[in-house]
Amino acid sequence: MQAPIPPMYPGGLRVGDEEEARVLEALHQKRLFRYYGPGEAQSQVAAFEDEFADHMNAEHALAVSSGSMALMSALAALGVGPGDEVVVPAYTWVSSAASAYALGAVPVIAEVNESLTLDAQSLEERITPRTRAIVVVHMRGAPADMNAVMEVAKRRGIPVLEDVAQACGGGYRGQRLGTIGDIGIFSFQYNKIITAGEGGAVITDSRRLHERALMFHDVAAGLRSDVQEQRRFVATTARMSELHGAVARAQLAKLDGILADMRAHRAEIVDNTSSDAAAAGVTWRRQNDAEGDTGLALIPLFADSDSAARATKALAAEGVPAHRVFSTEKPDYHMAYHWEPLIKMQTWSERTPWDLNPDAPTLDPSTCPRSWEILQRAVNIDVSPDLSPVNVEEMSIGISKVLRSV
Ligand SMILES: *Cc1c(COP(=O)(O)O)cnc(C)c1O
What we know:
Blueprint: H1 17-28, H2 44-56, E1 60-64, H3 67-77, E2 85-89, H4 95-102, E3 106-110, H5 120-126, E4 131-137, H6 146-156, E5 160-163, E6 171-172, E7 175-176, E8 183-187, E9 200-204, H7 207-217, H8 242-252, H9 255-279, E10 283-284, E11 297-298, E12 300-301, H10 305-317, E13 322-324, H11 340-343, H12 353-356, H13 369-376, E14 379-382, H14 389-405
Parallel strand pairs: 2-3, 2-4, 4-5, 5-8
Antiparallel strand pairs: 1-9, 6-7, 8-9, 10-12, 11-14, 13-14
Helix pairs in contact: 1-8, 2-8, 3-4, 3-7, 5-6, 9-14
The site of pyridoxal-5'-phosphate (PLP) has 14 residues, from helix 3 and helix 4.
């Protein structure tokens, strides 16, 4: 590879004058807290919430300190608590499950299919009378099969939380991800599509859910007179700072450009390599809605785990930014297989969520054999928005070469 490939920090590498200007605006106004400050300065966080809700086509947006706190706020808003069960896919960042666990609930793992997202049939098999919420995760930039998931959820009367941490701005059949289920969450941690270093958001069309999430994320929000919800709650404090809000606003304005660039690069690489993939019997990860994909990764599924391991090495030798999605040896919290603290039912106290719900399944990786089989065959190739034409050409040549050799 002649030209160096930019590291995969899509929004992070585009931090520039716009972020600087917004942050300086907040500093010059000496307003660092979202709810008040000296003078007449507008809150950057409040402006970000308005702009984010607008962009995502949601009624309400709540900015929080992280994606994990967005998950907890959203699950609490949905009424998840001690002894409840929450279905989560076997492939997701551990926070999707840990947030339910932290609320005293039992995360129940369900299979993913060749799209690497929640399999609706497996979801249905995991539902019990104690299931209080379904977390569906749009992994590696691509939408889950929302029609199938929503069909099960509606029929069984269970609310759906969309975890959009890895697919900000993506869509499904013309709708923004995060607006199809009851509530959606985002992360602005540094690896995500747009970033403030840290940060998160909760979006929903329901005023009630929004107010409950608001009360969860701000211990004093129950004192507010504009909260209509009759019952008041205290929880934790996970507010977004004004400096993060300032960066997030500038990043949001760049989201469409980042998506357009990732999608264009990905499409070009797919074009250049698909015939070699087909000849090698390698398929791409199944798409539930190709148009809604954010384009941040290209994921070939090899015939077996060994070929995926060999291909990963060969891709690295070609300078292509690739990693195996899953191996049993390498601990990685993206796979329920490696969620040791949950598997061992460890908690901060001597009690566990199972004390209140002894019938709930324990987290047993052997209940998701299909997920492990598929994920071991998957190789992730990052598609940075900042690839140059030379990068795209060289990556395509490298990928084709490896495909022809496996
Ligand atoms: C990153 C991520 C989160 C958590 O976000 P943080 O901001 O790191 O807390 C949750 N879910 C998924 C799928 C993620 O990738």
